[in-house]
Amino acid sequence: MPAPRAFLHIAGPDLWRRCGHDGTALVGDVVGLAWEDVPGDGAVGPVPALAAALAFDARCRLYRSRPELGQLERLRWAAADPLAGGVPAAEPVALFAPPPELLGGDFAPLAPPTPPAPLGLAVDAAGQLFVGLADAPCVLVYAPDERRLLARHALPGRPLGLAAAGLAVYALHAGPVGLVRLSAHGGVQPLPLPAGCSAPSRIAATADGALFVLDAAGTEAAQVFALAGGAPRALPWATDLVAVRVDDAVELTVARRPGETFRRLRLGADGGEQPPLKARGYDGRGIALTPDGRIVYWTARGPRHAVPARLVYRAQARVVGFRLDGERYGQRWGRVFVEACVPAGARLSLACISADEPIEDAPTVERTPPVNLADDPSRLPPHPEASPPLPPLALLPTQVGGLLHRRADGPPDAFPPPAEGEAVRFVTLEAPVRAAPGRFLWLSLQFEGDTRVTPRVRALRVERDAHDWLERLPRVFAEDAVAADFLRRHLAPFAGLLGEVDARAQARHALLDPAGAPEEVLPWLASFVGLVLDERWPPAARRQLIAEADWLFRYRGTLPGLTRFIELVTGSRALLVEQFRLRGLAAGPLDAEGGAVLGAGLRVGGAIGRSAQPQAGAAEVYRRDAHRFTVIVQAWLDAETAAVLRDLLEVHRPAHTVVTVCGVAGGMRVGVGLHLGLSSLLGPGAAWGGLVLGAATLGRDRVLGRPRPGFDPGASRLGETGHVG
């Protein structure tokens, strides 16, 4: 039986950056044509003299500061529907009361009171609004739902930009220049600014607390500093920025002058310049991040979403791969597989270069970075001296004409499966290696487009060994070199297909392993042990249930068996409580119609003068006398998870039982199912839901009030992150 075939690959941001790029861009782990500079919306306007701020809360309400009017406005963004014809657009509501009318005569003040001038805005995770005043060294903290002022924090200087990360808020201040950290019920803690940051004005924070400061905003010398360290990044004419965590990287959206596009930068191992956003009518005073992750800015006609700009790609580009080592002289290479997306109007070509000896003295192709990474030296691959060499210039073909064809059956089984949703966009292209035998191989891809679309390549893989079918035929078929080369390429698809079938046959034992079997064969595998899988169960739970099916069926219907079954499906700790064990703990009222017997000769309740109770129906007897137990899942159960759990218990609980399912609801409430150490635990509770008129009962399943952040034992400190009251 032949051994599995080996592949060499170029995939991932690190390996792509070690190639030679000529007119290409690397976005994430995908290489494509670089785009030209995108023009903005009309003429570029000046930077406004007075900045402002926008901020969203979790209920999708937009707050806007207007320091020139001394006013703070709120817009119900979620209620506005710009596509609803005939419906007037929502208007901002002023939150600051107008100044009172002044009395005349002797009681008139010498100088009329000036209204506060709100500038910086931020909303923390508890929905509390922080307002930095442009004319006073303080930050005001409001509870918008309660319409009251919670706190007033004094700062060393006049606050500028604010940003929230969880319950913490970070504020820049001027006169003197500095950075502080504060919270609604805590103190003010100074933090150091990066070296060289002399005129900070805007700050952005991710949800996990990564901070970025914009220095010299609105000027050609504007630059952004990361508080975690590193060199600053020049951002000419930047006026504002927001930061959001994307996988392991941070994406910055940078607003510039009115009429210019918003730049997008990804900071991280797979970072670089991203396609820009277009902001038609931007007023130049600030941007904000919506709860669903989009960018909002203000115009003369109200708030608008920034949209992806229409890119103009280059017509042609090329990427040259580094040297691949076959580890054997005279190596005859197999097939090349390209994971790519080639839309209509685009074209992708392949060229192969081989050599048996390393060429040391000849000039090689220059290792130029992708266009969108050229301005950022930090995006260069680590240890570039360890990168394999690029091909000599003398061997590089001037014309790349090797075509690729699409595989009808997808990528070979040896390759990792595409991510969910990517199987439609990216396909696997295949071509034979058209190069002389040699130990070393270089691959070159030619990208072509019509400036509106671009081919995209995610991975490049090559089969290290070609098939040996030609050696098994009579030597007369290999006497002519041209005919032998054609016959070898002609047999390659058939040899590859047979090799893949062979590899599947060798790996068929994996189908019997729940941990490694494909997801589509799990129901078939579960049928071997008599287990019917629910498609609503998570894939990991289905695999583990099959693996533990023998033990689960052995203890089916028992407390350990049901507990393990529920924990696997929900992914949370479960507790099963039998009702008879709660006697004396106010488990519940007695049945109003049932008889109570005290001792052997005393009957309390029942009809006087009759010794026998009337016969009840089977349903009534089951309702009254069934063995009852409660399942307490220490997690928030949404409607779908609760339905899945009830269906599971309907099948696997004992037939003589009645079950009640409970989850972590709105927290611990005394007198409403609270048993310390049994149905309660310390930890974050679920979000409080709204009360629906006509569908809720006060005092039973609903209470009136507003939720507030609780006290975290072991992590909260009185006077800083927690308070009594």
From TrEMBL:
Stretches the record annotates as Disordered: 361-390, 706-725
InterPro entries the UniProt entry points to: 6-blade_b-propeller_TolB-like, Tail_protein_I, Unchr_phage_tail-like
SUPFAM superfamilies documented for this protein: NHL repeat (SSF101898)
Pfam families (alphabetical): Tail_P2_I
Biased composition annotated in UniProt, kind: Pro residues: 379-390
Regions that span the bilayer: none
Name the record gives this protein: Phage tail-like protein
Phylogenetic placement of the source organism: Bacteria, Pseudomonadati, Pseudomonadota, Gammaproteobacteria, Candidatus Competibacteraceae
